[in-house]
Amino acid sequence: MSIHDDFDRIFKALAHAVRRQILDDLRDQPLTTGTLCAHFPELDRCTVMQHLKVLEDADLVIAERRGRERWNHLNAMPIQDIHDRWIGPHAAAASARLARFKQTVEAASREDAKGDD
């Protein structure tokens, strides 16, 4: 499996609002599947489990069995990988362009001020 397949699974998992909400719910602490189901009263348990399966397949959630309970843990590393691959470099390039634009505008403004003297 390629890194592109991994990214495709991650983006697919992040594409659905319920799955993004599950990840938000898991951000601060692991939660049981029952607790997550209670966060979505409009959905049946089977649907929540299907969403969790998509998140597990994308390696965004790691499930741990403790007795009869299933604890779901957020794995933020795939999101960090997306940030490192796309968001960070694109944000840096955009910031650099804005800095150059600012310098150009400020230089032009100084030239205009000299011309007014």
From TrEMBL:
Molecular function GO labels: DNA-binding transcription factor activity
Gene3D superfamilies in alphabetical order: Winged helix-like DNA-binding domain superfamily/Winged helix DNA-binding domain
Pfam families: HTH_20 (PF12840)
SUPFAM superfamilies: Winged helix' DNA-binding domain
InterPro entries, sorted: ArsR-like_HTH, HTH_ArsR_DNA-bd_dom, WH-like_DNA-bd_sf, WH_DNA-bd_sf
Domain of life: Bacteria
Segments forming domain HTH arsR-type: 9-84
Name of this chain's protein: Transcriptional regulator, ArsR family
Originating species: Sphingopyxis indica
